[in-house]
Amino acid sequence: MAIKARDKRLTVLHVATLNQPIKPNLGYGPIEMVIYNIDKGLHASGHRSIVACSGDSGVAGEHYVTIEKSMGNYWSQDNPEKRKTLNIHLSKAVDRIRMGDIDVIHTHDLKTLEYIYDAVSGMHVPIVMTLHVAAKNYLMEGAFRRWCKPMSSPQVYCIPISEYQKQDYNGLKTGNVVYHGIEVERYPVKRHPDKESYLFTIGRVTRDKGQDKAIEVARKTGSKLIIAGCVQDKAADREFFEELKDSIDLFVDIGKQPVDGNYFEDVIKPLMDCDEQIIYIGEVGSEYKKQWYRHARATLFPIQWGEPFGLVLIESMACGTPVIAFNRGAVPEIMVDGK
Question: How is domain 185-334 classified at the architecture level of CATH?
Answer without folding.
Answer: 3-Layer(aba) Sandwich (3.40)
